Amino acid sequence: MSEPGSIYELSADQLEEVSGGSPQLGIYRPGFRFREESLRYFRQCVGEETYVRAMSSEAGRRHHYVVARAFLSQADWEKFVWIEQFGSLDGFPGC
Question: Closest Cα to residue 46, out of 65, 27, 73?
């Protein structure tokens, strides 16, 4: 069993699920303009220590959205994706 907060490598199937390009809310589509804003939200959600560990991993340096998906709840993931697309939670359904 792995320790809580461990960084896991995602399989090709999991990566495809995360970056599959579907227009559904919560599915990541690479190429969004607001990466820094979404990373601030990710840091806020998981805390400084977990964020630093996650983003200093090879996966975090190469594919920030995969690491974010591994750590965020579904609701927070949907907000992360919204922020990557629009730069803030303004207009997010339910906010």
Answer: 73
For 54, the enclosing helix (H) or strand (E) is: helix 48-56
Please identify which residue in the block is written with the tokens 């896991």: 8
Q: How far, CA to CA in Å, does 51 sit from each of 24, 30, 54, 65, 93?
A: 26, 20, 5, 12, 26
Neighbour-count burial of 7, counting CB atoms closer than 10 A to its CB (0-12 exposed, 13-18 middle, 19+ buried) = middle
Residue 45 amino acid letter: C
- First vs last C-alpha separation in the chain: 37
Q: What is the per-residue pLDDT across 51-67, written as a single tens digit (0 to 9) for each?
A: 998 898 887 888 888 88
Taking the model in full, what pTM does it have? 0.68
